[in-house]
Sequence to fold (151 residues):
Amino acid sequence: MSHTIHRQQNAQALFQQLVELLKLIPALVFLSPPSQLGIPTVDSSIAALGGCPYSPGATGNVSSEDVVYALESSGVSTGILPVPAEGAPWDDLLEAGPRGEAFRRVAEVGEWISRELGRENGSKAGRAAVRLWERREREGGKGKEKYKEKL
Fold:
């Protein structure tokens, strides 16, 4: 009996350690490009929509906007945004220019579909980017017109 209880306690402790480790995975995944880890494809969904019919309460998937932002800002082309000009920075996704405008369109799709479905946009990068652009437009000076002038 005590052997069984001891095994259960070990299993519970191991499970707790695994849960704590899994909490770190989103940060760890982007430490090196997925292709260097042997991962040719990253599955995601716009605005992190989705879930699992077999797992009640599942919140969804990793958002496409977050994946694109993390990879592109790290210098890894996703094929979704234009590749920066030679010598240009990769982390220009919130600035005026072809890459910023392309990322803006991706982020705005996430906002739109979330509104249409009556759900919160699950993309941290997408939500933050859209709020930044909205603030720039309200403040003038760096509004949509000036943003597009640089394209």
